[in-house]
User: Which sequence fits this backbone?
């Protein structure tokens, strides 16, 4: 095998890079938890509301389409496998949509839209010296830039996940009802009666954790950018790839912890 | 209020001066590189190799980040390029530190800003109309006016003007000079430090003392 494929230098740099990332991640996490009070300042609240609008409200169109199609595909597949079995269909819907696809697909949509945008916006500000401009105004860049973005993206991921789950279930069953596969009201009742508090809480936990990871990672990659404008797309792709890997890893860990 | 105590960094060698309450001074530079280095020290970005820089008797570099930010709240920095946030409109940039630190709303800021604009362009509303633009769409003069007004709204004890009159048309530079002079006098004990190129425009700036940093 070629040495360029198993280059120890590259492996070492990747390990060190991962170490730097986790160190930076934890620093930003604890900073934002300590400085949540900054959200009390009107300019910071404004950034928070803008972030919620961009990450949450503006994503609803794409999320509605993806959730609807997901719901339709799942109900179609289930009914083709098990027939008109309302109880079993409800269980499978909960396993797939509430436990897994809801949090995961919502996170992926938000990674694609907001993670790259946030990382590149902050990287651009860093490269242009705007972070220093904030300091000269006596404004903490962490308080004004990072805290509202972390709070806004995290809240948005939780809300969007919930919306995704509702839409997928309702639209999936609506399609099934239109196609004559199974009755709509009975199917929804079946889901509600099968739904457990554990599933609700775990799905919310996943959404919350994914939101924190996505927001902090995006801010981390953006704020560490240095040098020329080529650092901006590197920050964006770095944030997106790190977020995708971490979200899938955490999804596996949380699922294993609660459902195995 | 501003004290340089045997400061050395690069071409700046063993610089010492004191700017007391109510004082004005201009520092003349023979190059922008030297000025940028100097401003970098004032902004807390470049630590001197030797010596201390003190604001209000406090060593700038002895402080952690959050304490340094508290110092900067009392200092109005007017950077040469305006130092604006590119995704905020001019008016939002102008208002940002006053809104952040003093809770000043847009309505409360309208009158003092209108007075500043009126001094610069009596009877006209050109500057006011431009406040809805993004920083990238403003001229150098407009960006500096926003930076000036932004600093003035904070009512700082110290003002530091970074090449504020450089590269402008003669009349525009003169108007800004007059504005800064009047603003200096409005608060007892206010200190104004001008970083200027060594040219004819700066020669017209009347201050208590002049320091020349040249080869």
Assistant:
């Amino acid at each position: 095998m070629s040495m360029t494929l198993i280059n120890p230098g590259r492996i070492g740099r990747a390990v060190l890079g991962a170490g730097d990332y986790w160190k930076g991640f934890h620093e930003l996490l604890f900073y934002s938890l300590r400085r949540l009070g900054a959200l009390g300042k009107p300019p910071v609240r404004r950034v928070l509301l803008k972030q919620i609008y961009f990450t949450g409200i503006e994503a609803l169109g794409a999320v509605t389409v993806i959730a609807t199609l997901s719901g339709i595909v799942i109900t179609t597949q289930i009914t083709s496998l098990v027939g008109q079995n309302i109880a079993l269909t409800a269980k499978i819907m909960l396993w797939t949509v509430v436990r897994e696809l809801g949090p995961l697909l919502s996170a992926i949509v938000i990674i694609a839209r907001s993670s790259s945008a946030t990382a590149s916006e902050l990287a651009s500000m860093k490269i242009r010296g705007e972070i220093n401009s904030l300091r000269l105004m006596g404004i903490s860049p962490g308080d004004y830039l990072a805290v509202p973005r972390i709070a806004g993206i995290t809240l948005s991921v939780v809300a969007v996940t919930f919306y995704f789950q509702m839409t997928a279930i309702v639209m999936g069953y609506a399609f099934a009802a239109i196609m004559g596969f199974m009755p709509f009201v009975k199917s929804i009742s079946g889901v509600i009666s099968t739904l457990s508090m554990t599933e609700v809480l775990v799905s919310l936990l996943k959404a919350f954790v994914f939101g924190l990871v996505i927001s902090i990672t995006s801010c981390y990659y953006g704020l560490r950018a240095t040098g020329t404008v080529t650092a901006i797309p590197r920050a964006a792709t770095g944030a997106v790839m790190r977020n995708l890997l971490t979200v899938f890893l955490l999804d596996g860990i949380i699922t294993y912890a609660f459902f195995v | 209020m501003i004290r340089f105590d045997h400061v050395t960094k690069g071409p700046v060698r063993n610089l010492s001066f004191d700017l007391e309450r109510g004082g004005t001074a201009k520092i003349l530079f023979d190059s922008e590189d030297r000025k940028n280095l100097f401003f970098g020290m004032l902004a807390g970005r470049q630590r001197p190799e030797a010596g201390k820089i003190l604001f209000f008797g406090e060593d700038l570099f002895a402080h952690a980040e959050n304490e340094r930010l508290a110092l900067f709240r009392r200092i109005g920095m007017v950077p040469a390029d305006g130092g604006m946030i590119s995704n905020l409109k001019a008016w939002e940039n102008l208002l940002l530190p006053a809104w952040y630190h003093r809770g000043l709303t847009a309505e409360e800021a309208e009158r003092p800003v209108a007075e500043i604009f009126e001094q610069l362009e009596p009877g006209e509303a050109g500057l006011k109309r431009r406040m809805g633009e993004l920083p990238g769409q403003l001229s150098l003069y407009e960006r500096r006016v926003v930076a000036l007004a932004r600093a003035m709204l904070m009512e700082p004890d110290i003002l530091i003007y970074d090449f504020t009159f450089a590269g402008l048309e003669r009349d525009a530079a003169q108007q800004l000079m007059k504005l800064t002079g009047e603003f200096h006098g409005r608060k007892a004990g206010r200190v104004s430090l001008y970083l200027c190129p060594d040219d004819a425009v700066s020669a017209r700036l009347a201050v208590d003392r002049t320091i020349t940093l040249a080869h």
User: Anything to note?
Assistant: The interface with chain B takes residues 41-44, 121, 124-125, 128-130, 132-140, 144 of chain A (CB under 8 Å). Chain A has a mean pLDDT of 91.
